[in-house]
Automatic annotation (TrEMBL), chain A:
This is Branched-chain amino acid ABC transporter permease. CDD domains: TM_PBP1_LivH_like. The chain crosses the membrane at residues 21-39, 59-79, 86-104, 110-132, 144-163, 193-215, 245-264, 276-307, 319-335. Keywords: Amino-acid transport, Cell inner membrane, Cell membrane, Membrane, Transmembrane, Transmembrane helix, Transport. Its main location: membrane. It comes from the Bacteria. It is a multi-pass membrane protein. It is found in: Cell membrane. The keyword Ribosomal protein does not apply. Belongs to the binding-protein-dependent transport system permease family. LivHM subfamily.
From TrEMBL, chain B:
This is ABC transporter ATP-binding protein. Pfam families: ABC_tran. It comes from the Bacteria. GO terms for molecular function: ATP binding.
Amino acid sequence: MTQTAIAASEVKPRRLPRETAVSALGLLLVAAVVVWVLYEAIKSPQEFASLIVAGAGNGALYALIALGYTMVYGIIELINFSHGDLFMLATVLSGIICVSLFNVDSFGFGAVGAVALALLISMAAAALVNVAAERVAYRRLRRAPKLAPLITAVGLSFMYQWFGQRQFMTGSAPKQWSTMFGDDGFNIGDVRVPYTTVTVIAITIPLLLLMVYIVQRTRAGKAMRAVAQDQDAARLMGIDVDRTITFVFALGGGLAGAAGLLYLQSVGTSNYNLGFRLGLIAFTAAVLGGIGNLQGAVLGGFLLGILSSLNDGMLLGQQWSMTVVFTVLILLMVFKPEGILGSPTTEKV
Amino acid sequence: MSTPTDAAPAQPGVRKAGEDLLTVTDLHVYYGNIAAVKGVSLSVKQGEIVTLIGSNGAGKSTTLRTISGLLRPRTGTVVFDGKSLVGIPGHKVVGHGICQSPEGRRIFPKMTVEENLELGAFLRNDKAGIAADKERVLDLFPRLKERIAQKAGTMSGGEQQMLAVGRALMGSPKLLLLDEPSMGLAPVLVDLIFDTIRTIRDQGTTVLVVEQNALAALRIGDYAYVLESGHLKQEGVARELLKDDSIVKAYLGG
Ligand SMILES: Nc1ncnc2c1ncn2[C@@H]1O[C@H](COP(=O)(O)OP(=O)(O)OP(=O)(O)O)[C@@H](O)[C@H]1O
Ligand SMILES: [Mg+2]
């Protein structure tokens, strides 16, 4: 009893100044970045604005994918490594539907209908694949050590990539598809805004809001949060835990499906190993925002999108993009390990 | 010694007559290859408080978890209200009218007290009934009313225990299972919890309570079972067991 009291009083004064120093250093770094961004913004406002626009478009895609990581992690603490590859499959599927099936290569009534249909099919297909993966691979490992489902996810990632590599998918080399808008866009003042960016954001924002609504306001969302905190206790409330987890995989898959189509419509190419890079960025976004936290994933996604866009256009150039992304991640992990919106884990057990 | 006012003036030492609400017969439950419950039979009659006592690892929680459908028995039957519950998944048992306040409280720490209570009524649709039960729970535990908007994980252990019991009551159970409701509570709160259990019974809910605090549990119980390493060691009218030498030696520190 007295011993713990002594230990506590010994530790406290030593830790406090260090923590203050670390957070002061963190604040200093953030301030430096903000100053740099402001400086660039004042120096060349047009370029800055168009980089923000492009970054927001990418950020929206990262956010969509990041939500799939964060929701699955939130409910069963699994880092679903195959999620990026699921997204990749969706890019290819949407390309096949839009181009091979409906010949979408320019804007028009028919094209909008075809893309909308492809969006729905991509979302449904990705949701279905994700649900099947949970049912077949992850469910039986739910009580196994954490490493088992993790390795299973890596295995699924390889399987999806193998499938993406088939000739009717992308084959081994990057494959190109025509898109509805191409590089078309419009100008606000001197700032170029591509139509695809508008489309991406116009579809992403409602989806993000829908997710937050589902999780926070609906009965299913209440069940999700309960299962995330304590599965057995949730069962004692009458919550069907299996069905709730299935639902989360369906939602995450659906978002990856939407991201797949939107990505292909913005970029026009896909590759069997696209999911690795995009998945890694999106996962980083999820961790950055605070894994398990929906708003955090969205924030992290937009933050990374805009940051890497600014870096590509103004700072170090595209070859340093990933370096910057991970530097930000590492710095944040040092100063705020729980992520921007994550809560420190101090729950009573 | 305070005596609960029983409607049926039973003879001392004889169990109240009545229909079984819950009948457990020859229950065997395993964790992997380890037997935790080895042939337990017990029954709970409508309107009773039945007490289950026994030392650590005796299989009390395992029995309750099996009744709630969280565990599947290897053999044995659980019949509730005339229906067999064996094989019914855990989340469906609640719908039959069995709610449990589990060992270690298991409240949802990131949710508010109110959200926890609402989750207790997850399967119910009768808005008026839910509101009435919430009212009732907050009357039973005024402390919860004060903390209604607080995150459950930030409450004291005793407050969390009240929440766990209150949450189980929100399911409007016919049978309430309580696993060590007095664990970690200050003596004043222990008395409060046991008084509340009696009130709950008097309001018409049948109770099966597992307790380490054997003295208090036998005092409020109508009937009692004693479990030892997975076996039923003894059963009888709770008050009679209080006088039993072997029980006093083993569980009441006499
Ligand atoms: N998840 C588990 N896996 C393996 N064995 C378990 C598990 N849970 C309980 N047991 C074992 O089953 C036996 C009965 O456990 P149980 O929790 O039912 O005891 P209890 O009577 O509730 O004890 P206590 O009073 O300490 O809560 C113990 O020997 C315990 O070690
Ligand atoms: Mg126990």
